[in-house]
Amino acid sequence: MAPTPPPVPPSQAAVDVRDPRVLRAMAHPLRMTLLGLLRLEGPSTATRLGERVQESSGSTSYHLRQLAAHGFVEEVADQGTGRERWWRAVHRSTRWETSDFLDDPGAREVVEELTHRQVSQHRRLLAAHAEQRADLPEEWLAAVSLNDWHLRLSPARARALAEELDAVLARWRDAPEEPDQPQVHVLLDVLPLTEHPL
């Protein structure tokens, strides 16, 4: 078996998706999982990814090719063989503007589907943190930040706030990382509620 290529970060910070067909292609649940794993864990093969997500290598290979056809992943040059191809993510994140898709009912449906998946992923991340807290060193317990803020804002000001916070996080993302440290997940949500859950 070929050695694992080093976990080089994707070459581009983010991709802006404006084509509903590209958004739909990415929205497939298994493709999103595979893309997420390549972004978080670095290059891998269809076989290794299949073992990781409990899918056949034929299935993961097909979905990796679909992601490559839309520019989300690429083969790792000079790695593997014809039968064992290595893949890596091209971008660190994917962005889209909901407003770009509101006039197309099919695209709007895809955006809603992606939103529900993001909310589910946030739940899983928070639940995993709650389960793992007992094993964290004290310095990490002190560094963890869980916040919620309640503001009364217009849609325009809420969007400006989100853009400002995104810019701060982009600056941190683009700064040199500390490869010997664990991944830190930052969840950032700006959302209106008509009724606060109890």
From TrEMBL:
SMART domains: HTH_ARSR (SM00418). Residues 21-116 form the HTH arsR-type domain. One of its GO terms (molecular function) is DNA-binding transcription factor activity. InterPro entries: ArsR-like_HTH, HTH_ArsR_DNA-bd_dom, WH-like_DNA-bd_sf, WH_DNA-bd_sf. This is Transcriptional regulator, ArsR family. It comes from uncultured Quadrisphaera sp. The lineage of its organism: Bacteria, Bacillati, Actinomycetota, Actinomycetes, Kineosporiales.
